[in-house]
User: What shape does this take?
Amino acid sequence: MNSPADLLHTVEKVCGARFVSQKLSLFAETRDLLAGPSFTLWLYALFVLDSDDLVTDWLAESLPVPAAFLAKYLLSLGFYASTATDLREYAETVLDDLEMRVTAIQLPHTLYHHVAHEGHLVM
Assistant: This one.
C-alpha cells in the first residue's frame, strides 16, 4: 500500500481536498460510491483491464469526480499492491486510516491559543 502521506498527497493534489472538511466530505462520498452499484462495475473493470495504460485511462476518466477517482484508485491499490481478498473492505480500511490521520491533526499550541478566544487574537 502507498504510505498514508502519499495517499493524503493524492487526496490533496489530485482530488483537490485541501482542508479537513473537504477531506471528510470526500471520504464520505467515496464510501457511498463503494457501497453502491458502481463498485461491481469497477471490480469487473479491474479484472478485465490487461495493461497499465488501460488502468491509467480507467482511473483518469474519473478525475472530474474526485470521490469516484479515489474509490477506483483505492480499489486498484488493493488489487495490484496488496494481498487483500475483499477490495471493498480494503478501501474502507484505508479510508478509515486516512480519516483518523486527518482528524488527529492538531493546531500548534500557540496558534490554537490565538484563535481559541472567540476568534480574537490574544498576545
User: Anything to note?
Assistant: Residues 15 and 84 are 24 Å apart (CA to CA).
